[in-house]
Amino acid sequence: MEKLYKLVSDAQASLFVLFHKTWVYHWNVVGQDFQQLHTLFGGQYETMFEEIDRLSEHMRYLNVKPLSSLNRVLEVSIVKEASSAAGPDQMISDLLKSNMDLCDLLVKISEESENQKSYATANLVQDLMESHGKFVWMLRSFTDKPSSKVQETVEVLEETEVEEVEEIETELSETVEE
Fold first, then answer.
1. From residue 71, how far is each of 16, 56, 63, 76, 81 by CA, in Å?
2. SS3 content of the chain, % helix, strand, coil (to 5)
3. 128 and 176 share a domain?
4. pLDDT tens-place string over residues 141-171
């Protein structure tokens, strides 16, 4: 059970750092996607706040004390602190990577929980995996923007199609007139 307890403690610390990072990015995001990102980050850190409480209370159920020292939380966390110099794209990439890392840790906890027959722990971390999997999807959707080269190609194709349609319409009207 010690391995499970260590993994759960690592997840609690990592979730806390991810919560704080997301909250900091929520405050500091700027740019053309400000409203979307501010709202997205806000919803995510609010969800994480509840998840931290749920996980920490479950730790108490397991008779494990949640970490309370911020220094220790930072030492144990697999998630790194927020960068104060990050722009919107860096924020998205950083949160995407951090959520994916947390999901990987949660998978390990789920597997160890099943091995230890700690099914309540497995259920809890599987809920967290679903939540953070959704965060990954949402964050990834911001990175899947077509490059300017792809966008230029699409615009050229659209213009070509319009010209072809106009040519066909002209030929049809000439045929009808004859």
1. 12, 17, 22, 9, 12
2. 80, 0, 20
3. no
4. 988 765 444 455 455 555 655 555 556 555 6
